[in-house]
Amino acid sequence: MFFSEHIGSPELEQITTGSLMVNQKARALDPPARRPYTSNVNRPKSFWQELESLKQPRRHFDLDTSYPKEWDMAIRPVIARLYKESIIGNAYMEYAPGQAFAHQDPGRDLDLFIDFRVVQSDVSLPVYMEEPPSTSALLSAVREFSTSHPSAKFALLRLWSASHFWPLMVGMDRRAMFSFRDARGRPWEFNFLPKDFPHSEKSMHFNLRNRMKKYEHVLRGRTFVKRDLVIVMGTDEEDLLRLATATTFAIVEEPWRLEVDLWRSFVNVGLGFLEGLHEEWLE
Description:
By secondary structure, this protein is α+β, with helices and mostly antiparallel strands. Helices cover about 35% and strands about 15% of the residues.
């Protein structure tokens, strides 16, 4: 529905008339208000100030007196939903390293966050787990491609992910490290990779990049991966259709954990469209 060969199709127009899914310019004007992707290690010191002040002077929570009631009211429904959907489960252990707390990012309500800093020194990543590239590096790549291919068309494909976890499963033998305590001290463990866990961005970037590498003989260096975002670069519309189809196949193949979130993606657009997007779309 994003390519000229589909435009004008009576069947397609019947289901897409007035839809922002197809009207990409209008949809681009409303950037998503979402919980940040940032893990514990990349949070500024100011992010932790309120949490740290509640631990004084003993450096840990007294759950009966220190934990703010509004925090408990904000995070309890989130934990209940995660449990209902089997994203987390009961952790049968005396000690869980993470501590649930609430934080309010600009323009958002109080939301659930997990403090996993205590395990940060224990998280040892292999050297090939790289930091995702910056937005400026992404734009430089598409500008360079456009310079060589004046008729270039692009697809920005964002993976679906929930607010609090990446769609990457945690092995049963490792879930103790991904456990946390709630406001009442009850332990829970994540079955999927929590976004707050140290270096979780690197894990998502590594997994998605590996999916692309498997089909490099087809994609031929025409993709740029940034964590959960793939930029597909076609020399023209026809080339993009072929490469975007191949990229989508690479993303959603077995194991079937990953899928493209079309509501947060843009297909068959030019360089000017990408340069004009709000930074939230490219973050």
